[in-house]
UniProtKB/TrEMBL annotation:
Identification of the protein by name: Glycosyltransferase family 2 protein
Gene3D superfamilies the UniProt entry points to: Spore Coat Polysaccharide Biosynthesis Protein SpsA, Chain A (3.90.550.10)
Domain Glycosyltransferase 2-like per the UniProt entry, residue ranges: 10-110
PANTHER family in UniProt: GLYCOSYLTRANSFERASE, GLYCOSYLTRANSFERASE TAGX-RELATED
Family listed: Belongs to the glycosyltransferase 2 family.
Source taxon at top rank: Bacteria
């Protein structure tokens, strides 16, 4: 692959996305800063997604197509895309694009400006992640909420490692990361809950996470979303708690994180990971003490009630 003269890669994984993909691609073409390379991978679509991508790709000045031999799912498909983007030594930043959203015209320029300001402060060798808010819309782009973080009662400023191991507050389609973080986060293991959660945990442990309060995306909610947004209400949280029969995935991700980074973690961060993993097998009443001592908390009372109920249901 020949290197491109741009330092930004926008990675896009698609799967049966024909219904909304064109609007997303058009929003990328409408960016005020179009100096990026679009890195594409289709995860085995059986509709017209591939034909649409082939039709639109000529409108982008820089495109890299990543061949797909199997269906990997969103998490590992995006992992492949990040590794492919890093093959170009000119790429200093990576942004993540979902197939069914609509980007606001200044998303690329604003994201790049914010992360470059952060690099001036902390240096290019610091792993950095910048993310932002989203406008929640329905399938026809009618607004449901002007703020995703308010809609789900999240606090995006709470990004300590203890918090990030418990709940992700970083939405992947708003992220921009620098090359140092992209290199450090790879490979993304199968035990990662999602690619954005894994990258956010790595950033929390080794670098810095910064939140932009303004929304830069219309975050479309429809019946085929891999992950969606639901309002922070008692019925929704009760249903979410019931639906998730187990929270073992949290500990599987933490164990994979410990295995991958081991002694590279700063001492305090290593202790946080160890304490979190011990939480699974601790006696019931000790679990509560550990949760509050180490701040293994979610954001909001209802979120924490659901988390504690699931945690207490794990047998000693």
């Amino acid at each position: 692959m020949a290197s491109s003269p741009v330092d930004m890669a926008v990675v896009l994984s698609t799967y049966n996305g024909e219904k909304y993909l064109e609007a997303q691609l058009d929003s990328l073409l409408a960016q005020t800063d179009s100096n990026f390379r679009l890195v594409l991978r289709d995860d085995g679509s059986t509709d017209q997604t591939l034909r649409l991508l082939q039709h639109k790709r000529s409108q982008f000045p820089y495109v890299q197509w990543v061949d797909a031999k199997e269906n990997l799912g969103a998490k590992l498909s995006f992992a492949c895309l990040v590794e492919a983007a890093l093959e170009d030594p000119n790429v200093n930043y990576v942004m993540f694009c979902d197939q069914d959203d609509v980007w606001h015209p200044d998303k690329v320029s604003r994201s790049k400006r914010e992360i470059q300001l952060l690099e001036k402060e902390l240096g290019m060798h610091t792993p950095l992640l910048v993310h932002g808010d989203l406008q929640v819309v329905d399938a026809d782009l009618r607004q449901l909420s002007s703020s995703f973080v308010h809609y789900q009662h999240l606090d995006p400023t709470q990004t300590s490692l203890s918090r990030m191991l418990t709940q992700n507050v970083v939405t992947g389609c708003t992220m921009i990361i620098n090359r140092r973080l992209a290199e450090l986060a790879c490979p993304i293991p199968p035990q990662a809950i999602m690619h954005d959660w894994w990258i956010a945990v790595v950033a929390s442990a080794f670098g810095r996470i910064v939140f932009i309060h303004e929304a830069s995306i219309d975050y479309r909610q429809h019946g085929s979303n891999t992950l969606g947004a639901s309002a922070y209400t008692l019925p929704n949280q009760m249903y979410s708690t019931y639906k998730k029969k187990s929270i073992s995935f949290l500990f599987e991700q933490a164990e994979a994180f410990r295995s991958q980074y081991g002694d590279r973690l700063p001492a305090r961060q290593r202790d946080v990971v160890e304490q979190f993993i011990r939480l699974k097998t601790a006696p019931r009443f000790r679990k509560i003490k550990m949760v509050y001592r180490e701040r293994f908390l979610k954001h909001g009372f209802l979120h924490n009630i659901g988390f504690l109920l699931k945690l207490m249901s794990i047998k000693d």
